[in-house]
Amino acid sequence: LVVVAIIGILASIGLSTYGRTRSKAFDVMAKSDLRNAISAQEAYFASNEEYVACNSTADCGATLPGFASSGPQVSISFTVPTPDTIVGTAFHTSGTLSYEYNSTTGSIVEN
User: Fold this and answer.
1) What is the pLDDT of residue 4?
2) Which of 39, 42, 52, 96 is the most buried (most CB within 10 A)?
3) How far apart are CA 88 and CA 34, in angstroms?
4) Burial class of 98 by CB neighbour count within 10 A (0 to 12, 13 to 18, 19+)
5) How far is the C-alpha of 57 from the C-alpha of 30, rounded, in Å?
6) Residue 107 has pLDDT above 70, yes or no
7) Averaged over 85-110, what is the pLDDT?
8) What would the mean pLDDT of 56-66 be, rounded to a whole number?
């Protein structure tokens, strides 16, 4: 009986750790896709001297050269507040974090 209780405790610890690890992996996937989209935005800007606003991952994929999302669960969008500035956001539907990029600061921050 004690062995069954110990196995139950270890299983509950393992499952909670698995859930957190899985959620972190989804967050990393969203951040990685945002980085790839930023690179595609910069490539587009180098060729066309303007950034592109896109409202969805599919829209960004159709517009930005070489950008492909890792899956439909990642949501990416970009706004163009000024002609030489972009603001991008990304999140995974199963993740816990969202990310924002602003070309003025050049950094990705967690939200």
Assistant:
1) 83
2) 52
3) 7
4) middle
5) 11
6) yes
7) 96
8) 92
Q: What is the pLDDT of residue 15?
A: 66
C-alpha to C-alpha distances, 106 to 3, 39, 85, 100, nearest whole angstrom: 54, 12, 10, 10
List Cα–Cα distances, 43 to 13, 14, 49, 93, 107, in angstroms.
Answer: 46, 43, 10, 27, 17
Helices (runs of H) and strands (runs of E) counted in the chain: 2, 4
C-beta separation of 57 from 72 below 8 A: yes
Name the residue among 102, 82, 101, 81 with its Cα closest to residue 90.
101
* Angle of CA points 28, 93, 31, to nearest 5°: 25
Whole-model pTM: value is 0.84
Q: What percent of the chain has pLDDT over 70?
A: 96
The rounded distance, in Å, linking the Cα atoms of 11 and 16 is 9
